[in-house]
Design goal:
Layout (H helix, E strand, L loop, with lengths): L1 H19 L10 H10 L8
Length: 48
């Protein structure tokens, strides 16, 4: 029973760094196109 418990603890500790390596993807969106579309639909104020 002790060996089974120790094995499970070791497995859990080895799996923890994998969860820490997860990251959000970086997404680059075209700002100029979104701004132009918003101005066209009058959703944004054209302040200059």
């Amino acid at each position: 029973m002790k060996a089974k418990h120790l094995g499970m603890c070791a497995l859990l500790l080895m799996a923890m760094p994998v969860a820490g390596m997860a990251a959000d993807p970086v997404v680059h969106l075209p700002f100029e196109q979104a701004l132009a579309a918003g101005l066209k639909r009058s959703k944004l104020a054209n302040v200059e």
